[in-house]
Give the backbone structure.
Amino acid sequence: MSPHTPVIEVAGLRKSYGDQVVLDGVDLTVPGGTVYALLGPNGAGKTTTVNICSTLLAADAGDVRIAGYDVRREADAVRRSIGVTGQFSAIDELLTGRENLRLMADLAHLGRAEAQARVSELLELFGLTDAAARRAATYSGGMKRRLDLAMTLVSRPRLIFLDEPTTGLDPRSRRDLWQIVRELLADGVTIFLTTQYLEEADQLAHTVGLLDGGRLVAEGTPAELKAQAGGETLDDVFLALTGHAATPADDTADDTEKEPVR
Amino acid sequence: MTTLTYAVRDTRTMLRRNLLHMLRYPSLTIMLIAQPVLFLLLFVYVFGGTMGAGLPGGGGRDAYLGYVSPSILIITVASVALSIAIHAAKDATEGIIDRFRTMPIARSSVLSGLVGAAMVQTALAVAVVLAIAVALGFRPDAGIGGWLGAIGVLALLALALTWLCVALGLAAGSVETASNTPMFLLILPFLSSAFVPTDSMSPGLAWVAQHQPFTPIIDTLRAFLAGHDPGSDLWWALGWCVAITLVSFAWARRLFAQVRAG
């Protein structure tokens, strides 16, 4: 994939659960080798967007192409192109850190020697070498997040989805994760992340999309958005463009984006 | 490699993951074996004297040991299957299932790896319980054909009950529910020819007992181990096992396609 060709193309994306409209016509394009941050409060439709782009969920309407492949008709080709770190921990807590990574290497069909090398390399990169032989259940929140992301990187995906990667992390773990995102970017990886934190979008993203009530209410570079709304911070921008604050009053607010139980 | 070789490789990877889970919980495996052994001791040394006297042709505790040992092997199979419902529910409610669903792997490998590990665990548990029964004085009269038949019936029953429990576990929605819904599999043998001949039951109950799956399955196993021809019981046993396997397999696959963690 050459840089700057779009790796995510979303047009007219719609999704509802019964009467509840979650995505109400979203269009967005992400060029290769950039970071796109989808910013919005709980219930804005961020996770639903990621789930549809990563083949977990079918859209009601709209076209979604990932790395040139249609998510509906070419799901397996899309899956070969992406890595996903979801909002909820996707590690196997009964396995050790090393076994978790080895599981991913085997599922990526790496050869034995290559798998071992890749696992050791990632353990080192994510500062988990000392904890490699411990069960993941004993890891701290920050370590679990790092292992989670390391598992996503085993197959060297060129496009990575990070759904609220730093929610619930302490400031230091958050900065560590930002550093990892920057290193991935330097390697030419495209990153699509969702966040409730305006600072995070400001720090990392080339392009920020403001999602509110299932619609993209504004899109641009952090600087453009600030100029557009005449505000200093993205907080001002969000308030100016949506009429309400982005940062949730209560971080533990229930997850209204969660799919209803079927 | 072809799609099929990938499917086989992914299944092997998932099988190893599930065997590791079982190794990490040796106490669970021990409990799965202890429960049927306790039943065996209870039925032979507490009830066995009286129950044996009531068998057709009479006999005492020793005769009852011969009567009840095959039933205890069937209970062992059911006991392991029960634990698989918990594994399936745990997998389905944790984030890692969504990770697998965004990876280009054979979908079927997640469930078939679990069923494969269950078969390994069942074989181990049945071997231990059988060895204890033999140590207590159980003396099967089976020839080679009888042993092969006995192993075949146990394997088919294990496959049927495991797939059924995988489906029940996926349907449960929580680990707590999954540990309760398949309990009927431990109750049903009591309403069969497992512990007493069905014609000694009250007429209505006897009819139920004679027409439920466990009776022909237990009678077939009992006949094989005694070196007799199971006759028409064999066809009923095979029919039930195949039917339960096919229905449960289709049900489990359907549920798995709908499963969403979080």
